[in-house]
Amino acid sequence: MITYNSIMSMKATSAPIFSTLIFLLCFSSTVLSVSFTKIPLPLKATGPEAFAFLSRAGDFLTGVADGRVLKLVSQARRFEDFGFFAPNRSKLCNGRVNDPNCGRPLGLALHHATKRLYVCDAFYGLGVLEGEGGLGTILSSGADGQRYRLCDGLDVHQQTGDVYFTDASSNYDIRQIPLAVAKNDSTGRLLKYDFNTKQVTVLLRNLSGPGGVAVDKDAQFVLVSEFIIGRTIKFWLKGPKANTYDIINSQPMPDNVKRTESGNFWLAAVKRNLTTLFLPIPIGQLVKASGSVLKTVDFGPWYGVIPVSEVQECQGKLYLGSMFAPFVGVYKD
């Protein structure tokens, strides 16, 4: 999970410069032979952080900044309201950004066997939406006597139904990310929700802005990105290295991590602009479980300096999330 303010806090540049660059760089549709299209969000909606695909036709669910989970009906090319977690949410929330009274869905993943959508709501915690949507159920709002301040990344192990997720900070919520970055906060946690016992276990503590999480198909390990210190780790769940971790990738501002059908992983991150260090370029990296990079895709021509929060592969296309864009990007080379 990356916020625009967090980049502002780390980069000494002015808001007018960022605004101008975003306007100029964000809205082209193709570069050379690469195709790039946009799926616009409903009016006032912004910030499609992550995706959960419902079918190979391209139907998916995504959370936006005003607290809603939206469903894309691909044939109609339109979004429908699907669910939310704020118990007193009203339509007045539509268009608001990061309001605790409205909720803020971040990481999400579908458990295909039960058709349950698990969601990290930044304000309310780990929740679930049943197949019909509507008001979701909060499964956990804290662990080990400590309330979640920023429930963020999430993945579901399809065979067991267990949910792996992160609490990005124990001190700061989503509105305070610049402060967390400035303080070099390292109070984040990796957690596991057990499908059978309904209990949450803390697997790893003292993480620096853990944003993305992806579990291996065989639940041998979990990959976790740490936004604040710019690294991705492999935390071992089984085997002789169980409960230890390896640093497998160093890339600035890593966010969501998504496993592909081939067993590799797409990591949303940024690279430094060689001409000026004040302008990070959003990228996606396809990496092996070992961390070796197979491919890097530059999304700067379409997003400018806006961070990309997720890169997820579906049917040969890359679907791009961003906490600041009013659209979902679809990239194909």
TrEMBL record:
Pfam families: Str_synth. The keyword Hydrolase does not apply. It is found in: Vacuole. GO terms for cellular component: endomembrane system; vacuole. Residues 152-240 form the Strictosidine synthase conserved region domain. Belongs to the strictosidine synthase family. GO terms for molecular function: hydrolase activity. It comes from the Eukaryota. This is Strictosidine synthase, conserved region. The keyword Glycoprotein applies. It comes from Corchorus capsularis. InterPro entries: 6-blade_b-propeller_TolB-like, Strictosidine_synth_cons-reg. Keywords: Glycoprotein, Vacuole.
